[in-house]
Specification:
Order of helices and strands: HEEEEHHEEEEEEHHEEEE
Distance between the termini: 30 Å
Oligomer: single chain
Protein name: DUF1963 domain-containing protein
Strand order of the largest sheet: 10-1-11-12-13-14
Helix content: 10-25%
Structural class: alpha+beta
Number of strands: 14
Radius of gyration: 21 Å
Length: 343
């Protein structure tokens, strides 16, 4: 089923014409539960990986804090146990788990000492250029694959690895790739397999001149007061942020979803060109402040139990305390290093 973002409340560029030249195309990916193959674009699905090509690993330092890493199998078993428990539960007054299940869960959450050898990377995303409007790679390459080390690194993020390849020259596929021996304790960086429903939307930046932000603030307060005169609190300029600026959720391209920190310049360490957003990894496609972005097809509440996998977060990935991770690339060369930031 395709996904359709509702129209924005107004055409913001007609209200503020100076925003018109700043419009950017973003592709909302709308990942939803499925069983993608290596020949499809996906989040958390199998990669079209040549059997003879070495699987990438991470030899960087990992940060686990006061908790121990777990195995990938621990994460999968834990999710399966909790999913089954939530689906069978008929009342909030009954225990979620039996005594035996609590013991199994405790074992799965106990963790193990971290390994000293390099950690195999985990597939995160695979994008065929044919499926993602506007996505373009090096000449002759039509497939972007993104993997990461599913552990915290400097900055509190997983460490991503990007591969561009020609899908037509892969040959024999690797069908049983290595799995990471260590995974972040809570499994926040283990994406569940999802098929994609790409949709083009228009975005406008949050990093704007102060004078324009002040006018957006006044306008937002006025619109909010007219729509809900009894409301005591107004989001002010955040009304523009919530309703007209940056789409929430997993997406390719667009603008940066600045949230808990102010915008700051990000430039390629090789050539000093300004980085451009490639992929936004989101902790959820909607929340209390972004309800107007919920696709039309997802507006009806589920008629039955939803289990562990929330409708707003099918990949089950969490960045920080519910933030976004954005992967930036240099616009001058695919060979220059990419950049990762939490926003």
């Amino acid at each position: 089923m395709p996904r359709t973002t509702p129209p924005r409340p107004v055409d913001i560029a007609s209200v503020f014409p100076e925003l018109a030249p700043l419009a950017r195309q973003a592709v909302r990916l709308h990942p939803r539960p499925g069983t993608p193959t290596a020949h499809e674009s996906s989040i958390g699905g199998p990669l079209l990986w040549p059997a003879e090509e070495a699987w990438p690993v991470c030899a960087k330092e990992h940060y686990h804090g006061r908790v121990l890493p777990v195995s990938l199998d621990d994460v999968r078993q834990r999710r399966a146990l909790l999913e089954a428990a939530w689906l069978r539960r008929t009342s909030l007054h009954e225990p979620l788990l039996s005594a035996e299940e609590r013991a199994v869960l405790a074992r799965l959450q106990a963790g193990h000492p971290k390994h000293s050898e390099p950690i195999a990377l985990l597939p995160v995303a695979q994008f065929y250029v044919r499926d993602i409007p506007g996505l373009a790679g090096p000449e002759g390459r039509d497939l972007l694959q993104i993997l990461w080390c599913p552990n915290d690194h400097s900055g509190g993020l997983p460490s991503a690895h990007l591969v561009w390849r020609d899908s037509g020259s892969v040959g024999k596929l690797l069908t049983d790739p290595p799995e990471p021996a260590d995974v972040e304790h809570y499994g926040h960086y283990v994406p569940e397999p999802c098929v994609l429903h790409p949709e083009i939307v228009t975005e406008y930046p949050l990093d704007l001149p102060e004078e324009l932000l002040e006018r957006l603030d006044d306008w937002g307060r006025g619109v909010w007061a007219a729509d809900d005169p009894d409301e005591q609190w107004s989001p002010g300029s955040a009304y523009y942020q919530y309703e007209h600026s940056v789409a929430p959720g997993w997406k390719v391209g667009g603008w940066a979803p600045w949230s808990f920190c102010d915008p700051w310049p990000m430039h390629c360490e090789t050539c000093n060109a300004e980085y451009q957003p490639l992929l936004t990894v989101s902790s959820g496609e909607w929340d209390g402040g972004s309800g107007s972005w919920i696709p039309l097809e997802d507006r009806e509440a589920p008629t039955g139990p939803v289990g562990l996998r929330r409708p707003s977060d099918p990949p089950m990935v969490q960045i920080g305390r519910g933030y976004d991770m954005q992967i930036y690339v240099c616009p001058t060369s695919f060979d220059h290093p990419h950049f990762e930031n939490m926003q």
